[in-house]
């Protein structure tokens, strides 16, 4: 039986400790300020990225690069290993299709090799939870096929709920109207969004004020937990340069739910181009994801 590895992309926000532990191959996602493209050899610290956005600069996100995907996959295939790739949601980017295209071409060139590309239908640490779960199964002796099958169900239980601090970043991405952005900002309304069962974003109401919006995230989280929830899994808290708020939410998760393991990480710039500074998300295993609203 051939050995295999689990790969993913930089939009997973997989913490470095897990990248090192699992020797995870990461496919870069790109973003740019003006003519300068970041994401592969050229990187920008998340804090600097969000400070530039606060200063009025408008970055752009870009899809992954097929040539780079090929290079990353070849580095695995040349070792005689198969690949299970956990991809950024097809509902939010064309990157999934790029990976599938490269995978098809390489499996023709490498007879007997397997490359399975899994559409995570998730973002950020939602992908990371899948990577962690897949590697846990592998360490327990699960086969390639069993892991692929298990991930098909697991991904539907990963809930991604978040709020943003500035409605105008959602306006740029076409998520709200100009009227909603102007009126909502004047009233200090903070919108809630979630990743639906199609892997796309859906809006789900508002709360007035930052503190209320963060507490409401936890209330919404608790409403989607049940007796089938695996509380041994980590909870992900992602943020757009608002670490103190992320710590506060992490403490609420630990005190108000049975979860005890919490991972806090920055929202990668290629996602942060749409969410903006102050965005904060809670990502966890719960009831199956909801359809679009």
**Physical arrangement of strands within the biggest beta sheet:** 10-9-8-13-11-12
Strand content: 15-25%
Radius of gyration: 19 Å
Shape: globular
Strand element count: 13
Helix content: 40-55%
Average pLDDT confidence is: 91
Q: Detail the poorly predicted runs.
A: none
Oligomer description: single chain
CATH class of the largest domain: Alpha Beta
- The tally of structural domains comes to 2
Structure in words:
With 293 residues, the protein is α/β, with parallel strands linked by helices. It folds into two domains: 4-155, Rossmann fold (3-Layer(aba) Sandwich); 157-285, Hypothetical Protein Tm841, Chain: A,domain 3. The chain contains eleven helices and 13 strands. The protein has helices spanning 16-22, 46-54, 66-77, 95-109, 125-139, 144-154, 167-172, 178-186, 210-223, 243-256, 269-275; strands at residues 4-9, 26-27, 30-33, 36-38, 60-62, 82-87, 115-119, 158-163, 189-195, 201-208, 235-239, 262-266, 280-285. The strands form three sheets. A six-stranded mixed beta sheet has the order 10-9-8-13-11-12, sandwiched between helices. Helix 3 crosses helix 4 and helix 9 (210-223) packs parallel to helix 10. The relative contact order is 0.17. The mean pLDDT is 91.
């Amino acid at each position: 039986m051939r050995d295999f590895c689990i790969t993913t992309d930089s939009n997973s926000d997989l913490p470095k400790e897990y990248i090192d532990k699992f020797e995870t191959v990461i496919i870069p996602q790109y973003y740019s300020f003006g003519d300068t493209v970041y994401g592969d050899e050229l990187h920008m610290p998340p804090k600097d990225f969000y400070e530039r956005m606060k200063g009025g600069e408008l970055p752009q996100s870009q899809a992954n690069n097929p040539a780079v995907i090929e290079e990353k996959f070849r580095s695995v295939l040349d070792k005689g290993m198969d690949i299970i790739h956990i991809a950024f949601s097809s509902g939010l980017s064309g990157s999934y299709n790029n990976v599938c295209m490269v995978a098809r071409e390489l499996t023709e060139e490498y007879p007997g090799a397997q490359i399975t590309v899994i559409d995570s239908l998730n973002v950020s640490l939602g992908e990371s939870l899948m990577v962690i779960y897949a590697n846990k199964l592998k360490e327990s002796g699960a086969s390639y096929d069993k892991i692929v099958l298990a991930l098909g169900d697991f991904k539907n239980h990963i809930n991604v709920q978040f709020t943003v601090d500035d409605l105008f970043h959602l306006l740029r991405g076409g998520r709200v109207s100009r009227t909603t952005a102007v009126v909502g900002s004047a009233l200090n309304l903070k919108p809630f969004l979630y990743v639906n069962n199609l892997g796309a974003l859906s809006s789900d109401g508002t709360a007035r004020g930052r503190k209320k919006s963060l507490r409401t995230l936890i209330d919404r989280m608790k409403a989607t937990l049940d007796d089938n929830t695996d509380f041994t899994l980590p909870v992900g808290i992602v943020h757009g340069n608002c670490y103190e708020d992320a710590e506060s939410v992490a403490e609420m998760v630990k005190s108000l739910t049975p979860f005890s393991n919490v991972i806090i990480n920055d929202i990668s710039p290629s996602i942060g181009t749409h969410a903006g500074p102050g965005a904060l998300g809670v990502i966890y295993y719960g009831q199956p994801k909801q359809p679009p609203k």
